[in-house]
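User: quick one, sequence for these tokens?
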């Protein structure tokens, strides 16, 4: 009896597992736990018979003085623990590296015609077949090596054990294995493999475990690392990551195509997962995939804060929030980027008319199909964007919030464009109350729409009073965020002849809106900005408590959404900050820290 093998765990396998767990814990969802539990169970069940065979046939052995004693089918307890901890650690690393990726955007409908995606359909089929041939070849080679019963036996046993699983996983999930960024695929295989190669070198050198000489090739990758051990760890980590990719591929299919799979449970059964993976890629809803990609790209390009926040949401809520963001962004841009006042007014009228029409005809399962049709006609000059609008889940959202948002956009048009002198300018935001009403319309509504999606996806059992309380706190939070937005964009808005600071405040400082247009960075403007930020933070303080009333899984992500935007306000209060395209920004590392703290609560 000895503790040497156990010490390998204490020193080398447990610390990275604990470290990764602490790091990932705030992001851990029920689906993650289910996924990791599923993978660990399969890994243990698949490895026990094989490992037991190797030990019983003395292909590898453990000196009795290095293990504590208990065994299962001759496998030492320490070895069983190895299967668990390796699968667990590699899984958590994979989850961590994949969190930011919006995986549904990587699904591909394989049809005859070519698309603007990275791989065309012929390539997809070729890659799939090439991979399958590779793994079939490996199986044949493995059989050959075992049959020879010589120095290649151990290598043959590794290959013959792993290749059929890899063939299966490849056949089911090749789209994700090939299409996802390497940070999600290659990296979670390579990092633990290199680490375990190092640990294995130490263990073999110390004699903690021994490969018998007649069954190994005798090739060393480096001094102390047998080629079989190197292949073993590379293969097992590949199995774990391919397993996770297949799981995520199935979940992405279930989440992306409600028309094909209806209302799927948050923790889908293994049968449902397999059903999803077996659905031919030619049946995927191509338009929906394009809309998912379009919405994800828009968010990534347009808002660093909400992009970061969206990666902390999961499942169908993340999908719906992306579509909501897309709609809001496109609608706002249509108004802001219109070349004439008439064009902007027409856009608002069209948006209003189409929404009304769609709500009149909606049924509980429909997305805004006909709105989409009208949009295509109406938005020939704004092609990027109209696709995503067709997916907006209107039946989960109140019409009045959209109507109020459009009223807010209407307010933007009351700014004269372009003014030729001070006398020409009309100023729609005269009082603090005007400002609050405006912020409530453009941002309070956004908050309430986000919360409606949260209520829907978590099937929250709130009373009307509780729901009302959370919604109105959310709306206040939207106002706080909008104030930060206005404080940040004083100069940018001035370029568009807009001054959102209330005229009454300007008067108190001895300023006119015209002065702001001419010098948006002047010292007295800074005082007004501070005043607006103070308002923003006091509303934020008053509303933030309501986040804790949301369902547990929504709290962290909501805090991230709010905090990463409020951090812009904190940056603005500092002496020096980075400005990009005229807007103050939060440096990436700082944004990550804010998100991390927000997730921890
Ligand atoms: C992850 C996540 C929450 C994503 C989706 C959020 C979403 C749907 C945002 C829509 C943004 C948008 C384009 C709205 C149009 C009107 C507008 C311009 C509003 C301003 C946003 C500014 O975004 P940005 O800086 O990118 O815009 P410009 O470059 O200036 O054009 C706003 C400041 C409003 C954003 C408000 C919210 C997202 C609401 C936040 C509040 C909650 C989520 C509720 C919190 C809950 C409780 C209970 C307190």
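Assistant:
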């Amino acid at each position: 009896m000895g503790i040497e093998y156990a010490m390998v765990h204490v020193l080398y396998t447990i610390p990275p597992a604990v470290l990764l767990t602490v790091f990932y814990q705030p992001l851990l969802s029920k689906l993650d736990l289910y996924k990791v539990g599923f993978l660990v169970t399969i890994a243990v069940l698949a490895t026990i018979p094989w490992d037991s065979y190797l030990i019983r046939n003395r292909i590898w052995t453990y000196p009795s003085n290095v293990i504590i004693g208990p065994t299962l089918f001759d496998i030492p307890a320490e070895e069983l623990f190895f299967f668990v901890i390796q699968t667990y650690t590699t899984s958590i690393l994979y989850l961590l590296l994949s969190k930011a990726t919006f995986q549904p955007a990587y699904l591909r409908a394989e049809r005859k015609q070519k698309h603007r995606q990275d791989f065309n359909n012929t390539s997809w089929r070729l890659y799939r077949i090439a991979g399958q041939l590779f793994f079939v070849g490996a199986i044949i080679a493995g059989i050959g090596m075992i049959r020879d019963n010589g120095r290649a036996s151990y290598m043959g046993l590794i290959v013959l054990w792993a290749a059929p699983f890899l063939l299966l996983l490849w056949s089911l999930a090749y789209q994700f294995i090939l299409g996802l960024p390497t940070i999600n695929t290659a990296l979670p295989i390579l990092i633990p493999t290199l680490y375990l190669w190092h640990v294995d070198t130490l263990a073999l050198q110390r004699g903690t475990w021994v490969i018998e000489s007649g069954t190994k090739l005798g090739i060393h990758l480096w001094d102390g690392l047998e080629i079989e051990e190197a292949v073993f760890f590379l293969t097992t980590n590949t199995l774990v990551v391919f397993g996770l990719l297949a799981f995520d591929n199935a979940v992405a299919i279930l989440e992306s195509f409600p028309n094909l799979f209806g209302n799927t449970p948050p923790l889908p059964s293994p049968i449902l997962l397999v059903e999803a993976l077996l659905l031919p890629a030619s049946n995927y809803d191509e338009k929906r995939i394009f809309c998912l990609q379009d919405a994800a790209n828009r968010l990534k390009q347009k808002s660093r804060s909400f992009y970061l926040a969206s990666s902390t949401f999961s499942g169908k809520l993340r999908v719906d929030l992306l579509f909501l963001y897309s709609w809001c962004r496109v609608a706002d841009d249509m108004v802001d980027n219109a070349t004439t006042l008439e064009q902007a007014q027409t856009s608002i009228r069209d948006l209003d008319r189409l929404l009304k029409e769609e709500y009149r005809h909606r049924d509980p399962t429909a997305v805004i199909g006909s709105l989409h049709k009208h949009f295509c006609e109406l938005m020939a000059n704004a092609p990027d964007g109209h696709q995503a609008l067709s997916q907006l889940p209107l039946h989960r959202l109140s019409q009045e919030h959209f109507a109020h948002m459009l009223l807010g956009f209407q307010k933007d048009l009351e700014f004269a464009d372009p003014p030729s002198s001070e006398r020409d300018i009309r100023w729609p935001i005269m009082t603090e109350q005007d400002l609050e009403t405006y912020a409530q319309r453009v941002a309070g509504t956004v908050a309430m729409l986000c919360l409606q999606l949260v209520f829907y996806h978590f099937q929250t059992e709130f009373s009307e009073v509780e729901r009302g309380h959370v919604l109105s706190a959310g709306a206040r939070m939207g106002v706080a965020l909008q104030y930060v937005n206005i404080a940040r964009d004083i100069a940018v808005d001035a370029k568009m002849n807009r001054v959102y600071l209330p005229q009454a405040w300007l008067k108190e400082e001895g300023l006119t809106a015209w002065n702001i247009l001419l010098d948006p960075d002047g010292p007295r403007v800074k005082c007004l900005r501070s005043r607006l930020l103070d308002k923003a933070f006091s509303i934020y303080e008053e509303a933030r408590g309501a986040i804790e009333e949301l369902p547990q899984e929504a709290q962290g992500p909501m805090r991230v959404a709010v905090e990463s935007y409020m951090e812009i306000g904190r940056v603005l209060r500092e002496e020096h900050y980075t400005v990009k395209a005229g807007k103050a920004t939060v440096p990436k590392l700082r944004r990550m820290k804010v998100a991390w703290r927000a997730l921890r609560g």
